[in-house]
Protein backbone atom coordinates (compact mmCIF):
# COMPACT_ATOMS: atom_id res chain seq x y z
CA UNK A 1 0.00 0.00 0.00
CA UNK A 2 2.67 2.47 1.00
CA UNK A 3 4.60 1.79 -2.12
CA UNK A 4 1.63 2.70 -4.27
CA UNK A 5 1.13 5.89 -2.39
CA UNK A 6 4.71 7.02 -2.57
CA UNK A 7 4.78 6.36 -6.30
CA UNK A 8 1.57 8.25 -6.82
CA UNK A 9 2.97 11.25 -5.01
CA UNK A 10 6.01 11.09 -7.24
CA UNK A 11 3.85 11.04 -10.36
CA UNK A 12 1.74 13.90 -9.12
CA UNK A 13 4.86 15.89 -8.40
CA UNK A 14 6.01 15.32 -11.96
CA UNK A 15 2.86 16.98 -13.25
CA UNK A 16 1.27 13.80 -14.55
CA UNK A 17 -1.86 14.42 -12.50
CA UNK A 18 -4.15 11.44 -12.18
CA UNK A 19 -2.11 9.10 -14.38
CA UNK A 20 -1.21 6.70 -11.57
CA UNK A 21 -4.71 5.42 -10.95
CA UNK A 22 -6.67 2.39 -12.07
CA UNK A 23 -8.94 4.58 -14.19
CA UNK A 24 -6.02 6.27 -15.91
CA UNK A 25 -4.28 2.95 -16.54
CA UNK A 26 -7.35 1.50 -18.23
CA UNK A 27 -7.64 4.61 -20.43
CA UNK A 28 -10.51 6.30 -18.60
CA UNK A 29 -8.36 9.30 -17.64
CA UNK A 30 -10.58 11.71 -19.58
CA UNK A 31 -13.80 11.03 -17.73
CA UNK A 32 -11.84 10.72 -14.50
CA UNK A 33 -10.54 14.27 -14.83
CA UNK A 34 -13.98 15.61 -15.81
CA UNK A 35 -15.53 13.83 -12.84
CA UNK A 36 -12.88 15.25 -10.50
CA UNK A 37 -13.70 18.76 -11.77
CA UNK A 38 -17.44 18.26 -11.41
CA UNK A 39 -17.17 16.97 -7.86
CA UNK A 40 -15.43 20.13 -6.67
CA UNK A 41 -18.82 21.85 -6.55
CA UNK A 42 -19.88 19.52 -3.74
CA UNK A 43 -19.18 19.91 -0.06
CA UNK A 44 -18.66 17.41 2.70
CA UNK A 45 -20.97 17.13 5.68
CA UNK A 46 -19.53 15.73 8.87
CA UNK A 47 -21.45 13.51 11.27
CA UNK A 48 -20.31 11.70 14.37
CA UNK A 49 -21.46 8.56 16.09
CA UNK A 50 -20.79 8.31 19.81
CA UNK A 51 -21.19 5.38 22.19
CA UNK A 52 -22.87 6.02 25.49
CA UNK A 53 -24.90 4.31 28.18
CA UNK A 54 -28.63 4.75 28.54
CA UNK A 55 -29.20 6.75 31.77
CA UNK A 56 -32.52 5.19 32.73
CA UNK A 57 -31.93 2.01 34.67
CA UNK A 58 -29.53 -0.54 36.08
CA UNK A 59 -29.44 -2.61 32.88
CA UNK A 60 -27.19 0.15 31.46
CA UNK A 61 -27.85 -0.54 27.78
CA UNK A 62 -25.33 0.66 25.20
CA UNK A 63 -26.59 3.30 22.79
CA UNK A 64 -25.15 4.98 19.70
CA UNK A 65 -25.87 8.68 19.39
CA UNK A 66 -25.71 10.20 15.92
CA UNK A 67 -24.97 13.88 15.65
CA UNK A 68 -24.47 16.45 12.92
CA UNK A 69 -21.72 19.05 13.14
CA UNK A 70 -18.13 18.65 14.26
CA UNK A 71 -17.30 20.15 17.65
CA UNK A 72 -13.55 19.92 16.95
CA UNK A 73 -14.04 22.27 13.97
CA UNK A 74 -15.87 24.76 16.17
CA UNK A 75 -19.28 23.80 14.79
CA UNK A 76 -22.34 23.22 16.94
CA UNK A 77 -23.15 19.55 17.21
CA UNK A 78 -26.74 18.39 17.39
CA UNK A 79 -27.99 14.89 18.16
CA UNK A 80 -30.17 13.63 15.33
CA UNK A 81 -30.79 10.00 16.24
CA UNK A 82 -30.21 7.48 19.04
CA UNK A 83 -30.36 3.72 18.66
CA UNK A 84 -29.28 0.57 20.50
CA UNK A 85 -25.64 -0.44 20.16
CA UNK A 86 -25.45 -3.81 18.40
CA UNK A 87 -21.90 -4.37 19.67
CA UNK A 88 -22.90 -3.88 23.31
CA UNK A 89 -23.03 -7.22 25.16
CA UNK A 90 -25.88 -6.21 27.46
CA UNK A 91 -28.59 -5.19 25.01
CA UNK A 92 -27.12 -6.21 21.62
CA UNK A 93 -28.89 -3.46 19.71
CA UNK A 94 -32.19 -3.57 21.52
CA UNK A 95 -33.79 -0.84 23.62
CA UNK A 96 -36.87 -0.74 25.81
CA UNK A 97 -39.62 1.81 24.98
CA UNK A 98 -38.08 4.36 27.36
CA UNK A 99 -34.63 3.90 25.85
CA UNK A 100 -36.02 4.07 22.34
CA UNK A 101 -37.44 7.50 23.18
CA UNK A 102 -34.08 8.86 24.39
CA UNK A 103 -33.93 11.48 21.65
CA UNK A 104 -37.03 13.16 23.10
CA UNK A 105 -35.46 12.89 26.53
CA UNK A 106 -32.35 14.71 25.29
CA UNK A 107 -34.33 17.43 23.56
CA UNK A 108 -37.08 17.73 26.17
CA UNK A 109 -37.95 21.31 27.12
CA UNK A 110 -38.46 20.22 30.73
CA UNK A 111 -35.08 18.49 30.91
CA UNK A 112 -33.09 19.37 34.02
CA UNK A 113 -29.90 21.08 32.86
CA UNK A 114 -28.76 22.82 36.05
CA UNK A 115 -29.09 22.36 39.82
CA UNK A 116 -32.35 23.61 41.30
CA UNK A 117 -33.71 23.67 44.80
CA UNK A 118 -37.16 23.53 46.39
CA UNK A 119 -36.72 24.77 49.92
CA UNK A 120 -38.78 23.39 52.81
CA UNK A 121 -42.26 24.85 52.64
CA UNK A 122 -41.75 26.40 49.19
CA UNK A 123 -44.12 25.61 46.32
CA UNK A 124 -41.64 25.97 43.47
CA UNK A 125 -38.07 25.25 42.40
CA UNK A 126 -35.46 27.98 42.08
CA UNK A 127 -32.01 27.98 40.46
CA UNK A 128 -28.92 27.52 42.58
CA UNK A 129 -25.24 27.44 41.61
CA UNK A 130 -23.32 24.17 41.78
CA UNK A 131 -21.09 25.57 44.55
CA UNK A 132 -24.00 26.67 46.68
CA UNK A 133 -25.86 23.45 46.03
CA UNK A 134 -22.92 21.27 47.05
CA UNK A 135 -22.18 23.40 50.12
CA UNK A 136 -25.80 23.17 51.18
CA UNK A 137 -25.96 19.42 50.64
CA UNK A 138 -22.76 18.94 52.64
CA UNK A 139 -24.00 21.16 55.46
CA UNK A 140 -27.36 19.42 55.70
CA UNK A 141 -25.77 15.97 55.55
CA UNK A 142 -23.30 16.85 58.28
CA UNK A 143 -26.01 18.27 60.55
CA UNK A 144 -28.26 15.28 59.98
CA UNK A 145 -25.46 12.81 60.58
CA UNK A 146 -24.35 14.56 63.77
CA UNK A 147 -27.92 14.39 65.04
CA UNK A 148 -28.87 10.88 63.99
CA UNK A 149 -25.75 8.71 63.63
CA UNK A 150 -26.00 5.53 65.71
CA UNK A 151 -22.72 4.08 66.87
CA UNK A 152 -24.41 1.30 68.85
CA UNK A 153 -27.88 -0.20 68.96
CA UNK A 154 -30.03 -0.71 72.03
CA UNK A 155 -28.20 -3.94 72.90
CA UNK A 156 -24.83 -2.21 72.86
CA UNK A 157 -23.71 -3.83 69.63
CA UNK A 158 -21.58 -1.57 67.41
CA UNK A 159 -23.56 -0.73 64.25
CA UNK A 160 -22.20 2.65 63.03
CA UNK A 161 -25.27 3.43 60.98
CA UNK A 162 -26.97 6.54 59.65
CA UNK A 163 -30.57 5.79 58.81
CA UNK A 164 -32.03 9.23 58.20
CA UNK A 165 -30.36 10.05 54.85
CA UNK A 166 -30.41 8.10 51.60
CA UNK A 167 -28.24 8.28 48.51
CA UNK A 168 -28.98 7.46 44.86
CA UNK A 169 -26.30 7.33 42.13
CA UNK A 170 -26.52 7.17 38.35
CA UNK A 171 -26.71 4.24 35.93
CA UNK A 172 -24.32 5.61 33.37
CA UNK A 173 -21.39 5.83 35.76
CA UNK A 174 -18.29 3.73 35.27
CA UNK A 175 -17.22 0.85 37.47
CA UNK A 176 -14.65 3.15 39.05
CA UNK A 177 -17.24 5.81 39.82
CA UNK A 178 -19.55 3.17 41.26
CA UNK A 179 -16.74 1.81 43.44
CA UNK A 180 -15.84 5.26 44.77
CA UNK A 181 -19.48 6.17 45.34
CA UNK A 182 -19.97 2.98 47.34
CA UNK A 183 -16.86 3.59 49.45
CA UNK A 184 -17.75 7.21 50.21
CA UNK A 185 -21.40 6.62 50.98
CA UNK A 186 -21.00 3.42 52.99
CA UNK A 187 -18.15 4.89 55.05
CA UNK A 188 -20.51 7.61 56.30
CA UNK A 189 -22.82 4.87 57.59
CA UNK A 190 -25.65 5.48 55.11
CA UNK A 191 -27.79 2.37 54.70
CA UNK A 192 -30.39 3.56 52.20
CA UNK A 193 -28.03 3.57 49.26
CA UNK A 194 -28.43 2.45 45.66
CA UNK A 195 -25.73 2.90 43.08
CA UNK A 196 -28.37 2.39 40.49
CA UNK A 197 -31.98 3.25 39.96
CA UNK A 198 -34.15 0.12 39.96
CA UNK A 199 -36.84 -0.34 37.36
CA UNK B 1 -25.45 -16.16 2.22
CA UNK B 2 -29.04 -16.82 1.24
CA UNK B 3 -29.51 -18.77 4.45
CA UNK B 4 -29.22 -15.69 6.62
CA UNK B 5 -31.69 -13.68 4.57
CA UNK B 6 -34.25 -16.43 4.09
CA UNK B 7 -37.53 -15.82 5.92
CA UNK B 8 -37.97 -18.07 8.91
CA UNK B 9 -41.30 -19.57 9.88
CA UNK B 10 -40.70 -19.26 13.59
CA UNK B 11 -42.97 -16.43 14.72
CA UNK B 12 -41.00 -15.95 17.92
CA UNK B 13 -38.23 -14.34 15.91
CA UNK B 14 -40.17 -11.08 16.16
CA UNK B 15 -38.17 -8.90 18.51
CA UNK B 16 -35.16 -11.13 18.11
CA UNK B 17 -31.88 -10.40 19.80
CA UNK B 18 -29.08 -9.74 17.37
CA UNK B 19 -26.24 -12.25 17.41
CA UNK B 20 -24.18 -11.57 14.29
CA UNK B 21 -22.07 -14.39 12.90
CA UNK B 22 -18.37 -13.54 12.86
CA UNK B 23 -17.96 -14.13 9.13
CA UNK B 24 -20.13 -14.47 6.09
CA UNK B 25 -18.25 -16.36 3.41
CA UNK B 26 -18.71 -15.40 -0.24
CA UNK B 27 -20.89 -17.36 -2.63
CA UNK B 28 -18.85 -17.00 -5.79
CA UNK B 29 -21.67 -18.06 -8.11
CA UNK B 30 -23.80 -15.23 -6.79
CA UNK B 31 -21.19 -12.65 -5.84
CA UNK B 32 -19.98 -11.56 -9.26
CA UNK B 33 -23.26 -11.60 -11.19
CA UNK B 34 -24.88 -9.52 -8.43
CA UNK B 35 -21.93 -7.15 -8.59
CA UNK B 36 -22.18 -6.87 -12.37
CA UNK B 37 -25.86 -5.94 -12.07
CA UNK B 38 -25.00 -3.38 -9.40
CA UNK B 39 -22.30 -1.82 -11.61
CA UNK B 40 -24.83 -1.54 -14.46
CA UNK B 41 -27.41 0.01 -12.17
CA UNK B 42 -24.92 2.54 -10.78
CA UNK B 43 -23.65 3.39 -14.27
CA UNK B 44 -26.96 4.96 -15.33
CA UNK B 45 -26.54 8.72 -15.39
CA UNK B 46 -23.14 8.52 -13.67
CA UNK B 47 -20.23 10.67 -14.86
CA UNK B 48 -18.03 7.56 -14.77
CA UNK B 49 -20.52 5.50 -16.77
CA UNK B 50 -18.01 4.04 -19.28
CA UNK B 51 -15.74 2.86 -16.45
CA UNK B 52 -18.59 1.38 -14.43
CA UNK B 53 -19.86 -0.46 -17.51
CA UNK B 54 -16.35 -1.73 -18.17
CA UNK B 55 -16.17 -3.05 -14.60
CA UNK B 56 -19.66 -4.55 -15.02
CA UNK B 57 -18.19 -6.46 -17.97
CA UNK B 58 -15.27 -7.64 -15.85
CA UNK B 59 -17.62 -8.78 -13.07
CA UNK B 60 -19.71 -10.65 -15.63
CA UNK B 61 -16.55 -12.31 -16.92
CA UNK B 62 -15.65 -13.21 -13.32
CA UNK B 63 -19.02 -14.91 -13.07
CA UNK B 64 -18.95 -16.69 -16.43
CA UNK B 65 -15.45 -18.17 -16.07
CA UNK B 66 -16.58 -20.27 -13.13
CA UNK B 67 -18.76 -22.54 -15.25
CA UNK B 68 -17.10 -25.97 -15.36
CA UNK B 69 -13.96 -24.69 -13.64
CA UNK B 70 -12.45 -27.23 -11.21
CA UNK B 71 -12.47 -26.21 -7.56
CA UNK B 72 -9.17 -24.74 -6.25
CA UNK B 73 -7.44 -26.74 -3.53
CA UNK B 74 -7.54 -25.52 0.06
CA UNK B 75 -4.45 -25.70 2.26
CA UNK B 76 -4.12 -28.98 4.20
CA UNK B 77 -6.21 -29.50 7.31
CA UNK B 78 -3.23 -29.22 9.66
CA UNK B 79 -2.20 -25.90 8.07
CA UNK B 80 -5.73 -24.56 8.59
CA UNK B 81 -5.68 -25.81 12.15
CA UNK B 82 -2.33 -24.17 12.82
CA UNK B 83 -3.54 -20.89 11.32
CA UNK B 84 -6.56 -20.95 13.62
CA UNK B 85 -4.48 -21.83 16.64
CA UNK B 86 -2.22 -18.80 16.16
CA UNK B 87 -4.97 -16.43 15.01
CA UNK B 88 -3.61 -16.25 11.49
CA UNK B 89 -5.65 -15.97 8.27
CA UNK B 90 -6.76 -19.36 6.92
CA UNK B 91 -5.14 -18.69 3.55
CA UNK B 92 -1.54 -17.51 3.66
CA UNK B 93 -1.29 -14.93 0.89
CA UNK B 94 2.47 -14.56 1.22
CA UNK B 95 2.94 -18.25 0.40
CA UNK B 96 0.24 -18.48 -2.21
CA UNK B 97 1.46 -20.30 -5.30
CA UNK B 98 -0.44 -19.95 -8.59
CA UNK B 99 -1.94 -23.34 -9.46
CA UNK B 100 -3.55 -24.75 -12.58
CA UNK B 101 -6.99 -23.55 -11.52
CA UNK B 102 -5.76 -19.97 -11.31
CA UNK B 103 -4.07 -20.29 -14.70
CA UNK B 104 -7.32 -21.51 -16.18
CA UNK B 105 -9.31 -18.80 -14.40
CA UNK B 106 -7.04 -16.08 -15.75
CA UNK B 107 -6.96 -17.56 -19.24
CA UNK B 108 -10.75 -17.83 -19.37
CA UNK B 109 -11.13 -14.35 -17.90
CA UNK B 110 -8.91 -12.84 -20.56
CA UNK B 111 -10.95 -14.64 -23.25
CA UNK B 112 -14.13 -13.20 -21.78
CA UNK B 113 -12.85 -9.67 -21.19
CA UNK B 114 -11.81 -9.28 -24.80
CA UNK B 115 -15.47 -8.89 -25.74
CA UNK B 116 -16.00 -5.83 -23.51
CA UNK B 117 -16.16 -2.35 -24.98
CA UNK B 118 -12.95 -0.74 -23.68
CA UNK B 119 -10.48 2.10 -24.32
CA UNK B 120 -7.26 1.50 -26.18
CA UNK B 121 -5.10 1.46 -23.06
CA UNK B 122 -7.18 -1.32 -21.52
CA UNK B 123 -7.06 -3.31 -24.78
CA UNK B 124 -3.30 -2.88 -25.05
CA UNK B 125 -2.81 -4.07 -21.47
CA UNK B 126 -5.00 -7.06 -22.21
CA UNK B 127 -2.99 -7.97 -25.31
CA UNK B 128 0.25 -7.55 -23.35
CA UNK B 129 -1.00 -9.81 -20.59
CA UNK B 130 -2.16 -12.48 -23.04
CA UNK B 131 1.33 -12.73 -24.47
CA UNK B 132 3.07 -13.21 -21.10
CA UNK B 133 4.19 -16.61 -19.85
CA UNK B 134 3.56 -18.40 -16.58
CA UNK B 135 6.65 -17.06 -14.85
CA UNK B 136 5.75 -13.44 -15.52
CA UNK B 137 2.17 -14.08 -14.47
CA UNK B 138 3.30 -15.69 -11.21
CA UNK B 139 5.33 -12.56 -10.51
CA UNK B 140 2.27 -10.41 -11.20
CA UNK B 141 0.21 -12.55 -8.82
CA UNK B 142 2.79 -11.95 -6.09
CA UNK B 143 2.77 -8.19 -6.73
CA UNK B 144 -1.02 -7.99 -6.55
CA UNK B 145 -1.19 -10.02 -3.34
CA UNK B 146 1.58 -7.89 -1.79
CA UNK B 147 -0.19 -4.59 -2.72
CA UNK B 148 2.94 -3.65 -4.67
CA UNK B 149 1.67 -3.16 -8.20
CA UNK B 150 4.15 -1.39 -10.49
CA UNK B 151 2.50 1.69 -11.97
CA UNK B 152 3.87 1.08 -15.47
CA UNK B 153 1.82 -2.09 -15.91
CA UNK B 154 -1.04 -1.25 -13.58
CA UNK B 155 -3.84 -2.25 -15.95
CA UNK B 156 -2.23 -5.62 -16.73
CA UNK B 157 -2.05 -6.34 -13.01
CA UNK B 158 -5.68 -5.40 -12.47
CA UNK B 159 -6.83 -8.17 -14.81
CA UNK B 160 -4.73 -10.53 -12.70
CA UNK B 161 -6.36 -9.04 -9.58
CA UNK B 162 -9.78 -9.81 -11.06
CA UNK B 163 -8.77 -13.44 -11.61
CA UNK B 164 -7.43 -13.60 -8.05
CA UNK B 165 -10.75 -12.32 -6.71
CA UNK B 166 -12.43 -15.30 -8.38
CA UNK B 167 -9.80 -17.74 -7.14
CA UNK B 168 -9.86 -16.53 -3.53
CA UNK B 169 -13.65 -16.26 -3.38
CA UNK B 170 -13.87 -19.88 -4.53
CA UNK B 171 -11.26 -20.90 -1.95
CA UNK B 172 -13.01 -18.97 0.81
CA UNK B 173 -16.36 -20.53 -0.06
CA UNK B 174 -14.96 -23.98 0.76
CA UNK B 175 -13.98 -23.01 4.32
CA UNK B 176 -16.06 -23.60 7.40
CA UNK B 177 -17.20 -20.19 8.63
CA UNK B 178 -17.28 -21.42 12.23
CA UNK B 179 -13.60 -22.35 12.10
CA UNK B 180 -12.45 -18.77 11.44
CA UNK B 181 -11.08 -16.49 14.13
CA UNK B 182 -10.34 -12.73 14.26
CA UNK B 183 -6.78 -12.09 13.06
CA UNK B 184 -6.39 -8.40 13.83
CA UNK B 185 -7.66 -4.96 12.91
CA UNK B 186 -8.15 -4.35 9.22
CA UNK B 187 -7.26 -7.91 8.21
CA UNK B 188 -9.54 -10.45 6.58
CA UNK B 189 -9.79 -13.66 8.66
CA UNK B 190 -9.72 -15.71 5.45
CA UNK B 191 -6.93 -14.16 3.36
CA UNK B 192 -5.41 -11.47 5.58
CA UNK B 193 -6.38 -8.77 3.09
CA UNK B 194 -7.44 -5.20 3.70
CA UNK B 195 -11.11 -4.34 3.48
CA UNK B 196 -12.42 -2.52 0.40
CA UNK B 197 -15.24 -0.96 2.40
CA UNK B 198 -17.30 -1.85 5.44
CA UNK B 199 -21.04 -1.91 5.75
CA UNK B 200 -23.75 -1.74 8.37
CA UNK B 201 -26.09 -4.55 7.43
CA UNK B 202 -29.81 -5.12 7.78
CA UNK B 203 -29.69 -8.92 7.63
CA UNK B 204 -32.02 -10.89 9.81
CA UNK B 205 -30.17 -11.81 12.98
CA UNK B 206 -27.47 -9.19 12.42
CA UNK B 207 -29.44 -5.97 12.00
CA UNK B 208 -27.29 -2.92 12.65
CA UNK B 209 -24.01 -4.85 12.88
CA UNK B 210 -21.03 -3.76 10.82
CA UNK B 211 -19.11 -6.05 8.47
CA UNK B 212 -15.86 -5.34 6.65
CA UNK B 213 -15.79 -6.52 3.04
CA UNK B 214 -12.51 -8.08 1.86
CA UNK B 215 -11.25 -6.59 -1.40
CA UNK B 216 -9.72 -9.90 -2.47
CA UNK B 217 -11.80 -12.89 -1.38
CA UNK B 218 -15.11 -11.12 -0.78
CA UNK B 219 -15.47 -12.45 2.77
CA UNK B 220 -17.47 -10.23 5.11
CA UNK B 221 -16.31 -10.17 8.71
CA UNK B 222 -17.99 -8.68 11.72
CA UNK B 223 -16.22 -5.64 13.13
CA UNK B 224 -17.19 -3.34 16.00
CA UNK B 225 -18.74 -0.07 14.84
CA UNK B 226 -17.26 3.40 15.43
CA UNK B 227 -13.80 1.88 15.33
CA UNK B 228 -11.20 2.48 12.64
CA UNK B 229 -11.26 -0.49 10.25
CA UNK B 230 -7.55 0.10 9.57
CA UNK B 231 -5.85 0.71 12.93
CA UNK B 232 -8.53 -0.23 15.44
CA UNK B 233 -8.59 3.15 17.18
CA UNK B 234 -11.89 4.25 18.70
CA UNK B 235 -10.83 7.85 19.37
CA UNK B 236 -11.41 10.60 16.85
CA UNK B 237 -13.72 8.73 14.49
CA UNK B 238 -15.89 10.98 12.32
CA UNK B 239 -18.06 10.38 9.30
CA UNK B 240 -18.00 12.47 6.13
CA UNK B 241 -20.54 12.32 3.35
CA UNK B 242 -21.44 14.38 0.32
CA UNK B 243 -23.83 17.22 1.14
CA UNK B 244 -27.32 16.32 0.07
CA UNK B 245 -26.47 12.63 -0.21
CA UNK B 246 -28.79 9.84 0.82
CA UNK B 247 -26.64 9.05 3.85
CA UNK B 248 -25.95 5.52 2.60
CA UNK B 249 -22.23 6.00 1.91
CA UNK B 250 -19.91 7.76 4.33
CA UNK B 251 -16.17 7.90 4.87
CA UNK B 252 -15.18 6.71 8.34
CA UNK B 253 -12.20 8.93 9.08
CA UNK B 254 -9.72 8.21 11.86
CA UNK B 255 -7.65 10.94 13.52
CA UNK B 256 -5.22 8.34 14.91
CA UNK B 257 -3.95 6.87 11.62
CA UNK B 258 -5.26 9.64 9.32
CA UNK B 259 -6.84 7.01 7.12
CA UNK B 260 -10.42 6.34 6.14
CA UNK B 261 -12.53 3.48 4.87
CA UNK B 262 -15.97 3.96 3.41
CA UNK B 263 -18.92 2.63 5.33
CA UNK B 264 -22.02 1.62 3.36
CA UNK B 265 -25.44 1.49 4.99
CA UNK B 266 -26.78 -1.75 3.58
CA UNK B 267 -29.76 -1.63 5.94
CA UNK B 268 -30.89 1.51 4.14
CA UNK B 269 -30.06 0.37 0.63
CA UNK B 270 -30.01 -3.47 0.52
CA UNK B 271 -28.43 -3.56 -2.95
CA UNK B 272 -25.09 -1.93 -2.06
CA UNK B 273 -21.99 -3.88 -3.04
CA UNK B 274 -18.65 -3.44 -1.21
CA UNK B 275 -16.72 -3.12 -4.48
CA UNK B 276 -19.18 -1.56 -6.95
CA UNK B 277 -20.50 1.17 -4.67
CA UNK B 278 -16.95 1.99 -3.65
CA UNK B 279 -16.00 2.77 -7.25
CA UNK B 280 -19.21 4.68 -7.95
CA UNK B 281 -18.65 6.90 -4.90
CA UNK B 282 -15.18 8.02 -6.03
CA UNK B 283 -16.36 11.61 -5.56
CA UNK B 284 -16.32 11.10 -1.82
CA UNK B 285 -12.66 9.99 -2.01
CA UNK B 286 -11.77 13.06 -4.05
CA UNK B 287 -13.24 15.39 -1.43
CA UNK B 288 -12.12 13.51 1.68
CA UNK B 289 -8.49 13.36 0.57
CA UNK B 290 -8.50 17.16 0.36
CA UNK B 291 -9.08 17.15 4.12
CA UNK B 292 -5.86 15.24 4.75
CA UNK B 293 -7.07 11.66 5.12
CA UNK B 294 -5.56 8.79 3.16
CA UNK B 295 -7.70 6.17 1.51
CA UNK B 296 -7.35 2.82 3.30
CA UNK B 297 -9.77 0.70 1.28
CA UNK B 298 -7.91 -1.74 -0.98
CA UNK B 299 -10.32 -1.95 -3.90
CA UNK B 300 -8.13 -2.89 -6.91
CA UNK B 301 -10.33 -0.88 -9.28
CA UNK B 302 -9.52 2.32 -7.38
CA UNK B 303 -5.77 1.77 -7.02
CA UNK B 304 -3.95 5.08 -6.89
CA UNK B 305 -6.46 6.87 -4.66
Number of helices of chain B: 10
How many beta-strand elements of chain B? 8
SSE ordering of chain B: HEHHHHHHHEEEEEEHHE
Strand content of chain B: 5-15%
CATH superfamily assignment of the largest domain in chain A?
ADC-like domains
Residue windows where pLDDT falls under 50 for at least 5 positions of chain A: 1-18
> Largest sheet of chain B at a glance?
8 strands, mixed
| Amino- and carboxy-terminal Cα gap of chain B | 31 Å
Our count of domains of chain A comes out at: 4
**Would you state the CATH class of the largest domain in chain A?**
Mainly Beta
Helix content of chain A: 25-40%
Could you explain the architecture of this structure?
The complex is a heterodimer of chains A (199) and B (305). Chain A is an alpha+beta fold. Chain A folds into four domains: 2-39, no CATH class; 47-107, N-terminal domain of TfIIb (Single Sheet), CATH 2.20.25.90; 113-146, no CATH class; 149-199, no CATH class. Chain A contains seven helices and eight strands; from the N terminus they run αααβββααββαββαβ. Chain A has helices at residues 2-13, 22-25, 29-39, 97-100, 102-107, 130-148, 175-188; strands spanning 44-53, 62-68, 78-84, 116-117, 126-127, 150-152, 158-168, 190-194. Chain A has a three-stranded antiparallel beta sheet with strand order 1-2-3. In chain A, a hairpin with an 8-residue loop joins strand 1 (44-53) and strand 2 (62-68). The longest helix of chain A has 19 residues, at 130-148. Chain A is elongated, with a radius of gyration of 29 Å. Chain B is α+β, with helices and mostly antiparallel strands and 305 residues long. Chain B folds into two domains: 27-177, FdhE-like fold, CATH 3.90.1670.10; 182-302, FdhE-like fold. Chain B is built from ten helices and eight strands. Chain B has helices spanning 2-5, 28-43, 49-64, 77-85, 100-113, 120-130, 134-145, 154-173, 276-280, 282-288, and strands spanning 23-24, 195-200, 210-214, 220-222, 237-242, 249-254, 259-265, 294-295. In chain B, strands 1, 2, 3, 4, 5, 6, 7 and 8 form an eight-stranded mixed beta sheet that branches. In chain B, strand 6 and strand 7 (259-265) form a beta hairpin. The model of chain B has no long low-confidence stretch (mean pLDDT 93). The chains are: A alpha+beta (199), B alpha+beta (305). Chains A and B meet through helix 1, helix 2, helix 3 and strand 1 of A and helix 3, helix 6, helix 8, strand 5 and helix 10 of B.
